[in-house]
Amino acid sequence: MAKAKEHVKNIVTVGATGIEINFTKETGDKLLNGFVSSQGFLLKLPLKAALIMFGADTFSNFVQATKEGKNNPVTTIG
Known about the structure:
two-stranded antiparallel sheet; 5 helices; 2 strands; flat
């Protein structure tokens, strides 16, 4: 839970106008990398393999694959 809080602090801040969300490709990459790194050894390797298989090993790659139609709902369900 402590690791999750640290990642959330990088994305969500409270500013003068209220809650601000900083979810860019860079912060998405950091969040995804932190999530994978926080997993146990036995889960980390299959998780990395699955993410690579779907073009989602980084958030930037996921966004690109989605734009190209590789990760859209029709393709994924099919």
